[in-house]
């Protein structure tokens, strides 16, 4: 392995890491701003112009708060909980292709940390791991409310992962590849986007990602009215901050994943008809990809300030009795259509 | 049980139909409502930078007026105290001495004039009762304070400042 390659990858990883953290940081502000505008008010706008220093103030506040570990808590697991939550949230972005390649002098730089040929499975594994952070934290707190939150998180995560996986199978039947890079390359231009061939699959995937990120209307693990805050009741200081941060990073990564899988990733309409050089197309592609991600993040927030929370039995009904049969039907439908297309056209 | 008012409505809970059960139409309806609010102008007034204009008949803190020559108009007749429904006003009158003609317009004046701002309901009846046009509720808001005794405003806070500062005999409460 040559040195330049290592440096290139380290730089790319750090850059993505920083971008992820900054976006997560400013998602907290954006969330409050969106909430404000949707409720006919301005949101926080006192710290700096338009409140852009608000996330820094919040972060600073988290660091200065007293750190409390309850007497009855399992100390190791209590600290491990938020650690796992933030790590699993961060490593998800490793397989996402952020853009095509940049050519600087002789070097061709791929804007993807690593093109794992089972990228979709890797993402899935990471998402499945993330619930451990919540479960460990909730259980280690030695508090009934956090335990309830953790149990809810676990069961919700398992229920919705099934439907999510099934909706992805239908997508993989179309793309014939598990590599995210390959999936994006196939969706060149505008008409080849997977959303046009898998609308139902996308809908199921979207609903399940809401549940996986435990966002409203599926935020039962951290529901204030029933569980006084859920799995993170006993957490204070930056440990609570890490849990919240992990949630926003999750939102960012799921938005990136949805844009990659269904909305063509960095592809944009007429990208090959503009007569631009490869580097320019790459740069515009990266910007377009981020625009798509931000649109999804906005959608996450838009939903949050529109819908009330599901009741627990409604949540389970929706997951097991509606989404899973629907996802299976989608697989069958996709199979039938593929066979018909292959035989007759 | 029979309804006495005849306004009782019995609501029956119907099972949800297909469109209600798949939630999506209702969700889109909700989303359209919130996005409409997202683009609506925001009615918030950014207070410290922007102040809302007061209504013309706003009644704020009282001020005891002076006449054109800077003399106190109040003659301590007590009509304001009498008209006050909250009994917030008290005063002690005194007779004008020789050489005080430039301070007080009438022969009798209020040596002590106190309004208890915790009692005052800002109804403006004192203003209406005054025969000498000596009291008006044209000031700003009465500010918050820590002690009850600090809400009893004397002449030091009520009498409006003199326009000419040539005179060394400032009236004292």
Automatic annotation (TrEMBL), chain A:
Its EC number is 7.1.1.-. It catalyses: a quinone + NADH + 5 H(+)(in) = a quinol + NAD(+) + 4 H(+)(out). GO terms for molecular function: NADH dehydrogenase activity; oxidoreductase activity, acting on NAD(P)H, quinone or similar compound as acceptor; quinone binding. It is found in: Cell membrane; Membrane. One of its GO terms (biological process) is aerobic respiration. NDH-1 is composed of 14 different subunits. Subunits NuoA, H, J, K, L, M, N constitute the membrane sector of the complex. Belongs to the complex I subunit 1 family. HAMAP family: NDH1_NuoH. This is NADH-quinone oxidoreductase subunit H. It comes from Parapedobacter pyrenivorans.
Automatic annotation (TrEMBL), chain B:
Binds 2 [4Fe-4S] clusters per subunit. One of its GO terms (cellular component) is plasma membrane. GO terms for molecular function: 4 iron, 4 sulfur cluster binding; iron ion binding; NADH dehydrogenase (quinone) (non-electrogenic) activity; quinone binding. [4Fe-4S] cluster 2 binds at residues 84, 120, 123, 126. GO terms for biological process: aerobic respiration. Residues 65-94, 111-140 form the 4Fe-4S ferredoxin-type domain. It holds the Pfam family Fer4_7. It is found in: Cell membrane. Coiled coil: none annotated. It catalyses: a quinone + NADH + 5 H(+)(in) = a quinol + NAD(+) + 4 H(+)(out). It is a peripheral membrane protein. Its EC number is 7.1.1.-. Its cofactor is [4Fe-4S] cluster. The keyword rRNA-binding does not apply. Belongs to the complex I 23 kDa subunit family. NDH-1 shuttles electrons from NADH, via FMN and iron-sulfur (Fe-S) centers, to quinones in the respiratory chain. The immediate electron acceptor for the enzyme in this species is believed to be ubiquinone. Couples the redox reaction to proton translocation (for every two electrons transferred, four hydrogen ions are translocated across the cytoplasmic membrane), and thus conserves the redox energy in a proton gradient. This is NADH-quinone oxidoreductase subunit I. The lineage of its organism: Bacteria, Pseudomonadati, Bacteroidota, Sphingobacteriia, Sphingobacteriales.
């Amino acid at each position: 392995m040559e040195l330049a390659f290592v440096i290139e990858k380290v730089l790319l990883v750090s850059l993505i890491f920083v971008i992820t953290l900054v976006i997560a940081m400013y998602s907290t502000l954006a969330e409050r701003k969106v909430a404000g505008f949707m409720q006919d008010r301005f949101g926080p706008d006192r710290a700096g112009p338009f409140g852009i220093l608000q996330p820094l103030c919040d972060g600073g506040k988290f660091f200065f708060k007293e750190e409390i570990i309850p007497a009855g808590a399992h100390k190791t697991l209590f600290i491990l909980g938020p650690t796992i939550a933030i790590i699993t949230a961060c490593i998800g972005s490793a397989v996402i292709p952020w853009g095509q390649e940049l050519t600087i002098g002789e070097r061709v730089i791929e804007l993807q940390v690593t093109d794992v040929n089972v990228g979709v499975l890797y993402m899935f594994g990471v998402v499945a791991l993330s619930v451990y952070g919540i479960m460990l934290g909730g259980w280690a707190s030695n508090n009934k409310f956090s335990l309830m939150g953790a149990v809810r998180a676990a069961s919700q995560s398992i229920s919705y992962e099934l439907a999510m996986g099934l909706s992805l199978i239908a997508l993989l039947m179309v793309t014939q590849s598990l590599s995210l890079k390959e999936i994006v390359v196939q969706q060149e231009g505008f008409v080849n986007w997977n959303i046009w061939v898998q609308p139902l699959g996308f809908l199921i995937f979207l609903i399940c990602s809401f549940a996986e990120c435990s966002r409203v209307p599926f935020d039962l693990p951290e529901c204030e009215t029933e569980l006084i805050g859920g799995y993170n009741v006993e957490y204070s200081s930056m440990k609570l901050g890490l849990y919240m941060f992990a949630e926003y990073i999750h939102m960012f990564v799921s938005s990136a994943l949805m844009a990659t899988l269904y909305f063509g990733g960095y592809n944009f309409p007429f990208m090959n008809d503009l007569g631009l050089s490869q580097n320019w197309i790459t740069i515009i592609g990266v910007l377009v990809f981020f625009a798509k991600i931000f649109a999804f993040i906005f959608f996450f927030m838009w939903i949050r300030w529109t819908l009330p929370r599901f009741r627990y039995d409604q949540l389970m009904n929706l997951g097991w009795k509606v989404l899973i049969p629907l996802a299976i039907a989608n697989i069958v439908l996709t199979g039938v259509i593929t066979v018909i297309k292959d035989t007759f056209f | 049980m029979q309804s006495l008012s005849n306004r009782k409505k019995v609501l029956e809970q119907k099972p949800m139909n297909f469109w209600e059960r798949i939630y999506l139409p209702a969700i889109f309806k909700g989303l359209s409502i919130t996005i409409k609010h997202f683009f609506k102008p925001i009615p918030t007034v950014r207070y410290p930078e922007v102040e809302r204009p007061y209504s013309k008949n706003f009644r704020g803190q009282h001020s005891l007026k002076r006449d054109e020559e800077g003399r106190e108009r109040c003659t301590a007749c007590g009509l304001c105290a009498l008209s006050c429904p909250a009994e917030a006003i008290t005063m002690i009158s005194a007779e004008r001495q020789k050489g005080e003609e430039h301070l007080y317009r009438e022969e009798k004046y209020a040596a002590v004039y106190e309004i208890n701002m915790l009692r005052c309901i800002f109804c403006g009846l004192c203003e209406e009762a005054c025969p000498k046009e000596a009291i008006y509720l044209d000031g700003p808001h009465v500010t918050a304070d820590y002690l009850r005794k600090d809400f009893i405003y004397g002449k030091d806070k009520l009498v409006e400042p003199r326009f000419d500062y040539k005179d060394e005999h400032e009236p004292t409460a």
